[in-house]
Write a structure and sequence with these properties.
The protein has seven helices and 15 strands. With 262 residues, it is an alpha/beta fold. A five-stranded parallel β-sheet has the order 2-1-3-4-5, with helices on both faces. Strands 10-9-8-12-11 form a five-stranded antiparallel β-sheet. Strands 13-14-15 form a three-stranded antiparallel β-sheet, with no helix packed on it.
Length: 262
């Protein structure tokens, strides 16, 4: 029996590392030889233990996954196969499906991990036959990572004060739509409404333009929640959201909406 492939896990979340390590114990052909919780530590460990496969979290302290990817791509010599692990959803990461480039979303799914290991094993087998093969981190993939960095720069959750006391958080991805209300914005999320003191213009700057579209001076919509778009009048549209909410776009903001429909 051949020696197992060597695996390094780089993730700053202890529970995420533990889950991945426990799942990998189900595959005897893979052996975890190192775990890292910081980016700089991961770069040093990769150079030291020379793993065959690295599970790399995109978001880490000191040096994030994008920085580690750059270091691997620019380092020369044989590079490990990299499987990205992230909290981003399918919408933000759809580009990774192209050319079988791999990623896992948290919490890691057993079946998805099995597919990732299968592809990694196939890649490593090809490299064994042609050791001088290219780095897996080509310029196109680095372009995708840079797009994800821009996406990550937007707040992932918003603090909302509870009138009864305390503070709770609403994740950006959970917001269905945003409504202007004088000097406040009302976040509609999962059938509940949350009032925040902010202007519509300022709050719009905190939302990713790839995820949210302003359809009216008083309304911003999560594009993933749009179930139906119908022409209304004079370049305006009626939007039906997944929860049944109906909104009408204004002519001033219809161009941004049409961009999504092309």
């Amino acid at each position: 029996m051949s020696a197992p492939y060597r695996v390094l896990i780089a993730d700053d979340e202890p529970l995420a590392r533990e889950r991945l390590r426990m799942l990998l114990e189900e595959w005897p052909g893979w052996e975890v030889v190192a775990e890292c919780e910081h980016g700089v530590e991961a770069v040093d460990a990769i150079a030291s233990v020379r793993p065959d496969l690295v599970f790399l979290d995109i978001q880490m302290p000191e040096l994030d996954g994008i920085g580690i990817a750059r270091a691997l791509a620019e380092g020369g010599g044989p590079a490990p196969v990299v499987v990205f692990v992230t909290g981003f959803d399918e919408y933000a990461l759809s580009a990774f499906e192209v050319d079988a480039r791999d990623y896992l979303t948290k919490p890691v799914d057993r079946e998805r991990l099995a597919r990732a290991l299968g592809r990694a094993a196939a890649t490593l087998a090809r490299r064994a036959e042609a050791p001088a093969g290219p780095s897996p981190l080509d310029p196109e993939l680095l372009g995708v990572l840079n797009a994800l960095r821009r996406e990550r720069d937007y707040p992932q959750r918003f603090a909302v004060r509870d009138p009864r006391g305390g503070t709770y958080f609403v994740r950006a991805e959970e917001i269905d739509w945003v409504e202007a209300e004088e000097n406040y914005v009302r976040l509609h999320a999962g059938g509940r409404a949350h009032l925040m003191r902010d202007t519509m213009r300022a709050f719009r700057e905190k939302l990713s333009p790839e995820r949210f579209v302003r359809v009216h001076r008083s309304a911003i919509v999560n594009v993933d929640r749009i179930a139906r778009v119908e022409p209304y009048a004079r370049g305006e549209y009626t939007l039906t959201l997944a929860d049944g909410t109906r909104l009408t776009s204004s002519r001033a903001h219809s161009e941004e909406l049409r961009r999504l429909l092309r």
